[in-house]
Amino acid sequence: MDIDLEIFSPVQPISNPLFDAHGVKVFLKRDDLIHPMISGNKWRKLKYLLKTAQSQGKNHLVTFGGAYSNHLLATAAAAARFGFKATGIVRGEEVNNDTLFLCKLHGMQLIFTDRDSYRDKAALFNQYFGDDNDAFFIDEGGASPEGALGCSELLDELTETYDHIFCACGTGTTAAGIINGLSKHQLKTRFNAVPVFKNGSFIRDEINRFLTTPADYHLHTDYHFGGYGKADAELVRFIKEFVAASGVVIEPVYTGKMMYALYDLIGKGHFEPGSRILAIHSGGIWGLLGMKDKF
Predict the structure, then answer these.
(1) Which of 2, 95, 191, 265 could make an S-S bridge to 217, C-beta 3.0–4.6 Å?
(2) Is the CB of residue 166 less than 8 Å from the CB of residue 261?
């Protein structure tokens, strides 16, 4: 089966009096519309990994994630769509939740493991599937050169230029891919990464390991709201107001923090008047399932 999905990811303008007051224009790249389950950067990161698995004659995808992992769900859906078996090795004690229900609905088998063992994913893969010639290792979040290559193709789809691009940052793979795409097209656009982890400056090393050439970019590390998967009342308020005003769903783990950072920086006069800013909606809205109690 040909491993591909038709990409529908329009760029749409977003309006707000804040933007007018500071003389900037903001646009949103709607990668969340690519597929209901394999959405956003999830599909971009999986595309070439699945092609590699297919070329190697592997038919069993083995990957990793937490109990509310969008990556696990996307891999389960992609496996079902393109004819692979799938196993997800889940960090932490055995639980049942909405995300894992959807993973199992798509045929993914789940293995739960303690957090200490989870740190060595290669060892876990070998423990369970070292003798399985059909098994194909996919790192947590799809972190890989193949993942970065898929994300770099986002730049091929743009028909206009921007002064800044904003993106949430978890593994660094999407950020690296976009930066590589900017280099490929020789664009002077400034890339802005918003790490979703506390003390997120470490993500620079993760980004740099997937860059095709050295590049300068900006990390905005003050918008983690307490750490990965954390959200406070201020972030929840912002997300509610944004969704109600735009009709675009964002969530607290990735896209909510990225958009909050963008609005906050605009309000602080961070950008030159006349700047055109593109924010990447990297999907992941199913992350809302694990944080419903905060809303």
Answers:
(1) 191
(2) yes
The pTM for the full model equals 0.95
Residues 161 and 234 in one domain: yes
CA atoms 223, 227, 229, 232: torsion sign: negative
Non-local CB neighbours of 263 within 8 Å, separated by 6+ positions:
16, 18, 238
Dihedral of CA 11/14/18/24: which sign? positive
Q: Print the domain residue range for 27.
A: 11-36+145-294
Q: Please count the structural domains in the chain.
A: 2
* Cα distance between residue 122 and residue 281, in whole Å: 31
**For residue range 176-224, what is the model confidence (pLDDT) as tens digits?**
999 999 999 999 999 999 999 999 999 999 999 999 999 999 999 999 9
Indicate whether 274 and 168 sit together in one domain: yes
User: Among the residues of 9-40, which ranges form H helices?
Assistant: 17-22
Rounded Cα–Cα distance for residues 183 and 191 (Å): 11
CB 29 within 8 A of CB 11: yes
- The DSSP code for 224 is -
For residue 137, give the CATH number of its domain: 3.40.50.1100
